[in-house]
Specification:
Immunoglobulin-like; 2 domains; 4-stranded mixed sheet; mainly beta; binds copper (II) ion; 5-stranded mixed sheet
Length: 223
């Protein structure tokens, strides 16, 4: 965990061959991309479509469309009958839809901000995680070089509002503001780019201090 990156361009049809190897039913529910009602991957009681209740050892093929107007960084997650426990255990992943033929950045990172609670881990404390790990050195150590065009893709997938703060750097928001700390809530996602100009050993972290000090931090190494 997180699940694999789904990487599409506008105009693509995305076909996901999903096999549930867990003991419990599970699904895949995407954000942002276009999908017809039966490709929603959501449990709806007696109105549930097959894609909203995939039993253990069964398969389902999700078909989604990256239509015009779906560009962006998104996520997918379980939305089956066990919701939200499978998501809280890590059944989520990133989904990016790029402009057709768009130049790829030199380097890019996909970061899920989320929580492991005691009912999930059996441990005493809550861990605030990035991609399933807590604390710098365990969380992803990101690496880039001066001069590279670097893209960060960040999404939240728990009950909390987080911020993404990057030391030594700043970026321009779509509305033109220059920021170095961006707030995002449950299932919100965003992407920003910068041209790397500042070598060193930097921190990235959530700036909610409780989250920061319970694990939501990592290294960004620029050479
Ligand atoms: Cu946080």
């Amino acid at each position: 965990m997180p699940g694999p990156l789904i990487d599409a361009e506008v105009g693509d049809t995305v076909v996901v061959h999903f096999r549930n190897k867990l003991q419990a039913p599970a699904t895949m529910h995407p954000h942002g991309i276009f999908y017809a009602n039966e490709m929603d991957g959501a449990y709806k009681g007696k109105w549930t479509d097959p894609g909203g209740f995939v039993q253990r050892n069964r398969t389902f093929t999700y078909v989604w469309e990256a239509r015009e107007g779906t560009e962006g960084t998104w996520l997918y997650h379980d939305h089956g009958p066990m919701d939200p426990l499978p998501t809280f255990k890590g059944l989520f992943g990133p989904l990016v839809i790029r402009e057709r033929g768009e130049a790829r950045p030199d380097n890019e990172f996909f970061l899920a901000f989320h929580t492991f609670d005691p009912p999930i881990t059996g441990l005493r404390g809550t861990y605030f995680c990035v991609n399933g790990k807590a604390y710098a050195g365990n969380t992803p150590t990101l690496e880039a070089k001066v001069g590279q065009r670097v893209a960060f893709h960040v999404y939240g997938v728990d009950n909390f509002f987080h911020t993404f703060h990057l030391h030594g750097h700043r970026w321009t928001e779509p509305d033109g503001r220059i920021v170095d700390n961006k707030t995002f809530g449950p299932a919100e996602s965003f992407r920003f780019e910068l041209v790397e100009d500042n070598p060193g050993r930097w921190f990235y972290h959530c700036h909610v201090f409780q989250h920061l000090h319970q694990g939501m931090n990592g290294w960004y190494l620029v050479s």
